[in-house]
Description:
Strand content: 5-15%
Helix content: 40-55%
Strand order of the largest sheet: 7-6-5-8-9-10
Number of helices: 32
Structural class: alpha/beta
Distance between the termini: 60 Å
Radius of gyration: 31 Å
Mean pLDDT: 92
Number of strands: 21
Oligomer: single chain
Largest sheet: 6 strands, mixed
Amino acid sequence: MGPDMGLDEDALDYHEREPPGKVAIATTKPTNTQRDLSLAYSPGVAAPCRKIDADETDAYKYTAKGNLVGVVSNGSAVLGLGDIGAQASKPVMEGKGVLFKRFADIDVFDIELAHDGVDAFVESVAAMEPTFGGINLEDIKAPECFAIEERLRDRMDIPVFHDDQHGTAIISGAGLINALDIVGKDIEEIEVAFSGAGAAAVSCAKFYASLGVPHEQITMCDIDGVLSQERADAGDLSPHAEPFAQGVEPGELADAIEGADVLVGLSVGGIVSQEMIRSMADEPIVFSMANPDPEIGYEEAKAARDDQVIMATGRSDYPNMVNNVLGFPFIFRGALDVRATEINEGMKVAAAKALAELAREDVPDQVVKAYGDQPLQFGPEYILPKPLDPRVLFEVAPAVADAAMESGVARESLDLAAYRERLEARLGKSREMMRVVLNKAKSDPKRVALGEGDDEKMIRAAYQLQDQGIAEPVLLGDRDEITDLTGDLGLDFDPEVVDPEEADNEAYADRLHDLRKRKGVTRREAADLVSRDSAYYGSVMVEQGDADALLTGLTHSHPSALRPPLQVVGTAPDAEYVAGVYMLTFANRVIFCADATVNLDPTAEQLAEITHHVAETARSFDVDPRVALLSYSDFGSVENEGTAKPREAVELLHDDPSVDFPVDGEMQADTAVVEDILADTYGFAELEGPANCLVFPNLEAGNIGYKLLQRLGGADAIGPMLAGMDEPVHVIQRGDEVKDIVNLAAVAVVDAQEE
C-alpha cells in the first residue's frame, strides 16, 4: 500500500463522505407499526429468547448468527502498513466486510481488539462465539497468528479462518494446478522454492503438500537464507517453519531457486534477479506475490526466459492476480450454509480445485467488459478466474459445502443442486427466474438453429448450450470460420455446423419460393436468399421441422431480422399478431412488458392479443399473470382516442371466456404497480395485487418504458421474447451478450417442448 497522492486523496474523500466509513446496519424485517416494534423487541422478542434458552442451536433459526462473520484483528500486520494498531486497522476491516457482503451476501461485524498478547486476544474472541457463525482473523503478525488460530479452532465450535495464511495458499494453489496443467508437469515431481518463511509462506507450503507436492521437494528461504537442518538444530527457526528444514542443506535464495520448477515469493520486493529466473527448470512457474512490489517484476521475469514463464503476482495491473477475494467470501458461504464446525483441509482443497476448474470455462461477456475487454481465455495469462465473475459463488461455495459434509464437520445436510440454485438467486431475481426455464429446457433439450453462427458470441453460446445440456445447437454460417474461431476460443467441443452456401438447398429454395412466389420472390431469388442469409435458411429449417427453434438477429437490425421468420414461419394458428415481451427483474419482483419491439400502434384487438401473449410468457416462467393495460388515464379519467383503445381491449378481454387471469385497465403505470394506490383508490379493479404484466399502448411507450426501468430502475432484462409465432423463433438484439443468447435459447427450447 505504497503512497499514491491521487489515490490517497480519492480514498480519503471516499471514506469521509457522509456517512463516514463503509458499512451500516440494515433491518431485515418490517418496523413500520407499533405491532412490528413489539415483535422486534419487547415483549415479543421474549419468545425466540426462550426457544434459544431451551436449545442453543435455535439461534441459527431465530437470529442472524448463521449469516454473520466476525472480522477480527489487532492491526499488528496490516498489508503494506505493518503494525499500525487496532484503531488504524478499522478501515481495512470494514473493507473486508464490504467484500464479504458484495461477493457472498455475508454480513460482518468488524472487531478491532487492542491486545498485543495471545492469551488476551484468544479469550476476547472465544467469548464472542454466541454472536457469530464464523470468525475471520485478519492482519495479525507471525508467529502469534499461528497460536491464535490454533487455540481458537480448538476452543470454538464455529469456523475460524486466518485469511492471510490460508487465502493466499488456496488461491495460489488453484493457480498452481492450472499452471502445471499448461506446462504438462506432474505435481508430485516438481521442485518448489519459497522466498519467505512467514505465515503466508508456511501456509502455502503446507497447502501445496496437501495438493500433492512431496514435502521434501519444498525448499524455503528467509532473510538469512535456506531453512536448513543446521538452522533447525540450532533453534533458529519457528516451530511452524521447522518441518520444512528437515534434511535440507544450507544455502542462499539463489541456491534454492536453481533448478526449481516453481518459485513462490511471499517476502519483499526486488530480491529475485533475472539470472535466478534463468537458472530455473524449463517452463518455470513464478508466483511473485510480495505487495506492493513483487520479488521480481512481471516484465522482468517474462524477459528473463523469452516469455516462457507463467507468472502470477499480487497486483491487479498484471495477469494472474492472486487475490484473496476469490476465496474467503465463498469459503465462508459454503461453511456457514452447512453450519460447519471448522474449515478443514479438505474444504480448502475443494475450493482450490473449484477455482482451477472455473478458470478453464468460457468467460461471460460481463466479466470481460468489467476488465477492459482484455482477452480472458485459459492459458499462461489466465490461470485464475476474476473476482467479478459471478460464477465463483455457485462453483466454490457448493464445493466447500460438499467437502464439509463429506468430512463430517457439517451440522446441516444440503441438496447441492438446490443449494446452487439458492446461491444463484442471491445474485439477482433474473437468475432465479431463468433457473425455472433452464431446468425445464434441460429436462428435454431441443434442436436450436443459431443464425449468424460464425459470430464469436454465437459460437460461445452454442458451447454453453451443449455443455450445460440446455439445447442441441446448430450453428448456421461459414464452416471454415466457425472451425477456426472455435479453435481460437479454446473451446473443447465439436459443434454441429450447417453452412448454407455448401448445403443442398434445392428443397429449401423450393419451399421459400412456394411461400413467397405471390409476393414477388422468384425461384432464383429464393435460392439466393437461403444460401446467403442464415435468417432465411434457419426460418425454412424450422418451418420444415429440421430444427425445433431458431435464434437470429445478432448482427442485424431488429426489423430486418424479424422479416424472414414472419414471412416463412408466420404466426400461430390462433394468433394474428406477434409481440415482443421483456422480463424485467428487480430485487423482489418481476415485471413482464409488452409490446416493446414489434407493433407500432396497435388497435384494441391487437392489444387484447398482446395481452394473451404476455400472460402466456409469464406462465412459462411459472408466474401467475396479473395484467394491466397502461395509459395516462385511470379508468376513464381522460377521454380521447388514445385512452379509448386500451379500455376497449379490456372490454374484449373481459368478454373473452378463454381469459383465465386477472386483467384490467386502462390505468396509469403507478396505479398498476403500487398496491396502495390500486387497493385504496381503485378497489373495484379486477387485480387483487400489483400488476406483474404491463401492456403498453404503443411501441414507442413500450420501448421507452422498459429501457427506463432497466437503466434507471436497476432491472435486469431478459428478452425480447417473440410471442405468437407458429414455431419458436426469437430475434436477438444487436449487442446482446452470450448469456442473453443462452437465456433466449432456453426459452425457445421450452416453447418447443410445449409445441
